[in-house]
Design a protein that fits this description.
The complex is a heterotrimer of chains A (about 250), B (about 500) and C (about 350). With about 500 residues, chain B is an alpha/beta fold. Helix content of chain B is about 30%, strand content about 20%. Chain B is built from 15 helices and 23 strands. Chain C has one domain: Aminohydrolase, N-terminal nucleophile (Ntn) domain (Glutamine Phosphoribosylpyrophosphate, subunit 1, domain 1). Helices cover about 30% and strands about 25% of the residues of chain C. Classes of the chains: A alpha/beta (about 250), B alpha/beta (about 500), C alpha+beta (about 350). At the A-B interface, helix 1 and strand 12 of A face helix 3, strand 5 and helix 7 of B.
Chain lengths: ~250, ~500, ~350
């Protein structure tokens, strides 16, 4: 088996496609290029290792779900929930993505060059060394970072002064943080989310992310460097604790 | 304090003639009911939850407990429970959380169904002497088989989906590590392994000390996705997507940070002391086709080697919902009736939302048959299974197997006090406090749970034998062997059973 | 529901036809097993001149009232080639509570385009339709070239009522009934027939509720108030519609125990396990001995722990299966050896060529 494998996915169902990917990985492939992808879901679902998969076309939902290690580079847009419950590895999307990007993501990193849909980063969570990161180049729809329990979302709004956001930003957030370039309208803050200025340490934290983001998409990192950033963080680690009383 | 204190729920009294001041009651009670002053045990009944640990440990039977020693003016509508809930909410302005299953006095349909036995026209079968098969396969079954003749040999052309093989149709439902202790989970795991059946992990991940029993464990994927990664999915014998549970249909779960100790944090993969919040819906499932997507993503991740179950709470429209699930590639559907237990649920949900498992199973089974897709999924009934007769009746109504929960905890000592949410379970079950957890000895507790499963299995075999049936598949959906006793006609139509005497 | 009954079947593998005299004598030999409240016979090859038509046998309570309704229904789906009242002859022990009739019917296969066996499916539909929607009309047989004779009475009386000695068949089955349910109801007498399947049954099927609900999800409707009809429907489903062999069908209905399956060689194990998984709801529980016939073969088998008697014997081209050896020897004194099949294992007689 060659180190570099090419798969033509034209008309192929996702199960044989994933079988082909697994077979290539088992045979030691370091790079896989999949052409003519058109709506095949679950690509690299549950895949381990360190293979780099280039996807030419539009992958279907749940790209890289449960993935633990590999890198997926998508030349095209993604449907809903790329990086769903992803464990480790990297997804680089040269385009936009649908709803629930990085849903319940536990580790690894996702770069989206353009926009994401509703509920991106919902219920991301972190544990020990595993800290998921979602970098969004453009804007996001409502409920960004809803229920967030850990990890980091960085949203850059690169085509304007600030990303376009919507209601429910960080609604129910009880861990992790959302870092937004430019100003954040208070009316967009969700329940239990509070807004503050970026600290010096945090600026240091996002700099390498901006560098890598710009590198992947051939952009100039300087455009993001001296901008103003805000942090959306939990007002409390227990946002709903006050809702309940015990029977006895 | 304008409302004042509510009356004692329980009064503890000590027979001082019997008491030998051994102080076991003081050691037993984590709630602080007992103290010793001078040469006498004194009690504070107000903090008692009726867990009975003191009573069970007292060597002289010196302790008695009386429920509601103080009468309210009796009233059929304004029960003490209703009045006390109002006092509570008038003070707090909050949602009341309560424990265990539905506490309202709804009629129990199981207790209005009777089983059949053979007399003369066919022989009953003695399960001690004759073969009696309770082996149950859970998973998708082909609706028909195709064979091919090849050089005189018959070859099966149909490919079978993976199924779980149970030696008895009794499984233990999902109670997470976090909701219950590791010793409790270990006890259950050893019991199901001994009995050739399965248990659920709950949404709490899989602790590494349970890896030896992983072939008998069904790993749960719930809306919080706690502890879920590819290793977890691959370890399980099957994967269960939890959509809802009978004790609180339609809402999520919430493990408070104080129960997230180091070990719990490790299996759930969240930081110690942080709240574990399971949202109400799965945020990648907002419609039935999304469920299909999650089912298939789990199958793709595990290379189609594992059966995938879907658990829902029994609600009004269960039959149509399950018909949709049956088309999703799911292999089994768990239906959790409104009596299902829980560590903590809003009282208003626990007592008022959902429908009984008996009606749900009957209508689901009928709906799947009417659409010709009963073979697409196995049906697992849960929520309020108390004894072997309930199991026989659930199977006759159409279930393939049952999950038990509370009954298994009772087998380990639980007294159904319903205060699991306090985290101080004196039986070492619903607690993470190390000294309390240590009270539950997995050697003894696993034997007790296995004994219960064995005993019910024996009883099921006897009931089947008496009905002249020697294989569980001939009991399944065999509603002719049930009769309704004082059930109303409409419910008998739903259950598709005749009345006694008919 | 229950029949502590006597059953018998005979097949001539070379299709030499026999008249009904022999089976009448054999069944009468087992009168101790019956109660004089029901008996019946089925003869394969009875209508050679009309063998391409489905012979729909119907009990009418009042033919003037219900026959037009049946004809109307049949006419929607095909053509009636010939119809007649089935000749009967008064017997002291038989009260003629129904008027038996037979229609020779040809369905129009174009009317059920999605079916691979459109004619059979039309006839099956009509049987279920008439039996569930026209009170006072009961279709009790619907095969091609199969005559069914049944009524309430002792076997010899029912035989003489229809004069079965006037009919010729290359395969006969018969049944002597001891009812506990629906005594005296002609519809409850055996054989049960659907299309080319006929069944005689001794015993009780304790899994009836499971089997009925299974078969009903495939469009069959149980209308005879008895457990035996599900056997005919199960055979029709498994063999005609699912294309299983007789041996596989019998394995599905009376399978080996799991401990036996676990000890089988792996290939056989895989097949039998698949049969139990796929056809678990078809498994028949309870005490039974059954003989099932169609135009290809006759098969007899018992429940898997052998709670009812069944023996078989051969002579020349003829295979006999019955509850009692005496019945077989009454029909054929020249039989050398009578054998007892193992529980759940079929005895199969097939026509040559």
């Amino acid at each position: 088996m060659a180190e570099i494998v090419r798969i033509d996915a034209e008309g192929m169902h996702y199960t044989p496609l994933n079988q082909a990917i697994r077979a290539a990985v088992a045979a030691g492939a370091a790079e896989i290029t999949i052409d003519h992808v058109m709506g095949q879901r679950f690509i690299a679902d549950g895949l381990r290792g360190s293979v780099e998969i280039t996807i030419n076309g539009v992958p279907g939902g749940d790209l890289g779900m449960f993935m633990s290690g590999p890198t997926c580079i998508v030349h095209g847009n993604c449907e809903h929930a790329p990086g769903n419950t992803m464990d480790a590895g990297k997804i680089i999307i040269h385009g936009s993505a649908g709803d629930a990007v990085a849903h319940s993501m536990r580790g690894g990193i996702i770069f989206v060059r353009d926009d994401v849909g509703y509920r991106a980063g919902i219920h991301m969570k972190q544990y020990e060394e595993k800290r998921p990161v979602l970098v969004i180049g453009g804007s996001a729809r409502a409920f960004l970072g809803e229920y967030m329990a850990g990890g980091l979302i960085l949203i850059l709004g690169r085509k304007a002064a600030a990303p376009q956001l919507d209601r429910g930003l960080g609604s129910g957030i009880h861990g992790g943080k959302i870092i937004v370039r430019g100003n954040v309208d208070e009316k967009h803050l969700g329940v239990g989310a509070k807004k503050r200025e970026l600290s010096h340490e945090e600026r240091g934290e996002i700099t390498p992310l901006i560098e890598e983001f710009s590198h992947h998409f051939g952009l100039d990192p300087l455009q993001f460097r001296d901008e103003r950033y805000y942090v959306i963080a939990p007002a409390s680690a227990r946002p709903f604790a006050g809702k309940y009383t015990w029977e006895v | 304090m304008s409302i004042g204190s509510v009356p004692l729920r329980y009064r503890i009294s000590v027979d001082h003639d019997q008491c030998m001041l051994c102080e076991r009651c003081i050691e037993s009670c984590p709630y602080g009911v007992f103290r010793k002053e001078g040469e006498r045990i004194h009690v504070n009944s107000r903090v008692c939850v009726a867990c009975h640990r003191c009573i069970a440990m007292c060597p002289r039977d010196a302790i008695t407990l009386k429920e509601r020693p103080v009468d309210y003016r009796s009233h059929p509508l304004w029960t003490p429970g209703v009045r006390e809930a109002i006092y509570n909410q008038a003070r707090s302005g909050k949602i009341i959380l309560s424990g265990m299953g539905n506490a309202l006095d709804y009629p129990v349909i199981f207790d209005r169904l009777v089983l059949d036995a053979c007399q003369v026209t066919n022989p009953s079968i003695d399960p001690l002497r004759e073969p009696m098969e309770l082996r149950t396969y859970l998973g998708k079954k082909p609706s028909r088989l195709k064979f091919r003749e090849r050089s005189g040999d018959t070859v099966l052309e149909t490919t079978l989906s993976p199924n779980l093989m149970l030696e008895t149709p009794i499984m233990i439902g999902h109670m997470s590590y976090g909701a219950i202790s590791l010793n409790a989970q270990q006890s259950l795991a050893r019991a199901v392994t001994r009995c050739g059946t399965f248990m659920g992990t709950g949404e709490g991940g899989l602790h590494e000390s349970l890896y030896p029993y992983q072939d008998h464990m069904i790993v749960q994927v719930a809306s919080g996705r706690f502890g879920v990664d590819i290793n977890y999915l691959e370890r399980g014998a099957a994967i269960e997507i939890k959509i809802g549970q009978g004790a609180k249909p339609g809402i999520g779960g919430h493990l408070p940070g104080e129960k997230v100790c180091a070990d719990v944090s490790c299996t759930r993969m969240i930081p110690e002391g942080s709240d574990a919040i399971s949202p109400a819906p799965h945020h990648d499932i907002y419609s039935i086709e999304d469920l299909k997507q999650l089912v298939r993503s789990l199958k793709e991740a595990t290379e189609w080697k594992k059966p995938v179950f879907v658990k829902i709470a029994a609600v009004h429209n269960s039959a149509a919902i399950v018909a949709g699930i049956a088309r999703s590639s799911a292999d089994a559907v768990v239906i959790d009736g409104f009596r299902g237990g829980t560590g903590a649920a809003p009282r208003v949900f626990r007592d008022h939302v959902g429908i009984p498992i008996e009606a749900a199973i009957a209508s689901v089974d009928a709906k799947l048959r009417s659409q010709g897709i009963r073979n697409e999924v196995s049906l697992i009934a849960s929520g309020g299974i108390r004894e072997s007769a309930d199991i026989a009746k659930a199977i006759a109504l159409g279930a393939d197997a049952v999950y038990i929960g509370t009954a298994a905890l009772v087998a380990m000592g639980c007294r159904v006090c319903g205060t699991c949410y306090k985290g101080l379970c004196p039986w070492g079950i619903a607690t993470q406090r190390p000294d309390l957890v240590a009270r539950l000895d997995p050697d003894t507790a696993s034997a007790n749970v296995a004994n219960l499963i064995d005993a019910w299995t024996l009883e099921l075999a006897e009931l089947m034998g008496a009905a002249g049936i020697n294989s569980i598949e001939s009991l399944r959906g065999n509603r002719d062997r049930l009769r309704g006793y004082l059930l109303d006609e409409r419910i008998m139509q739903v259950l598709d059973v005749k009345s006694v005497g008919a | 529901m229950i029949y502590m009954c006597g059953i018998i079947g005979v097949i001539d593998r070379s299709r030499q036809r026999m008249d009904g005299t022999g089976i009448r004598a054999a069944l009468s030999r087992m009168d101790e097993r019956g109660s004089g409240e029901g008996a019946g016979y089925a003869a394969y090859g009875a209508f050679p001149d009309l063998c391409d038509y489905y012979a729909l046998h119907i009990f009418f309570d009042n033919p003037h009232e219900t026959k037009p309704l049946v004809i109307e229904e049949l006419s929607k789906w095909g053509t009636i080639e010939h119809q007649e009242e089935i000749p009967t002859f008064e017997q002291p022990g038989v009260r003629k509570v129904h008027i038996p009739w037979r229609f020779f019917f040809k369905p129009d296969p174009r009317l059920m385009p999605r079916s691979t066996t459109p004619e059979d499916d039309i006839v099956m539909y009509l049987v279920m339709k008439v039996n569930t929607s026209i009170p006072g009309a009961l279709v009790y047989a619907s095969g091609k070239n199969v005559a069914v004779f049944k009524a309430s009475g002792w076997p010899e009386e029912v035989a003489d009522f229809y004069r079965i000695q006037d009919y010729q068949g290359y395969l006969w089955i018969g049944h002597n009934r001891y009812p506990t349910n629906t005594p005296g109801w002609w519809g409850g007498a055996h054989p049960f027939n659907l299309l080319n399947w006929s069944v005689v049954h001794n015993g009780e099927i304790t899994s009836y509720g499971t089997n009925r609900r299974y078969i009903e999800s495939y469009g069959y409707r149980c209308t005879m108030y008895t457990d035996t009809e599900v056997v005919a429907y199960l055979f029709d489903l498994l063999i005609r519609r699912h294309g299983l062999s007789i041996e596989t069908a019998v394995t599905a209905l009376a399978p080996p125990f799991w401990d036996e399956i676990d000890r089988m060689p792996s290939k056989q194990q895989e097949i039998v396990r698949a049969i139990r998984l796929a056809y678990g709801p078809a498994l028949m529980n309870g005490p039974f001995a059954i003989v099932v016939a169609n135009h290809d073969s006759m098969v007899g088998f018992t429940d898997r722990i052998k709670l009812r008697p069944l023996v078989s014997g051969e002579h020349g081209n003829r295979l006999y299966i019955s509850s009692e050896e005496a019945a077989i020897r009454t029909m054929e004194p020249g039989i050398e050896q009578v054998t007892m099949p193992r529980a759940g294992e079929p005895v199969i007689g097939r026509f040559l060529q």
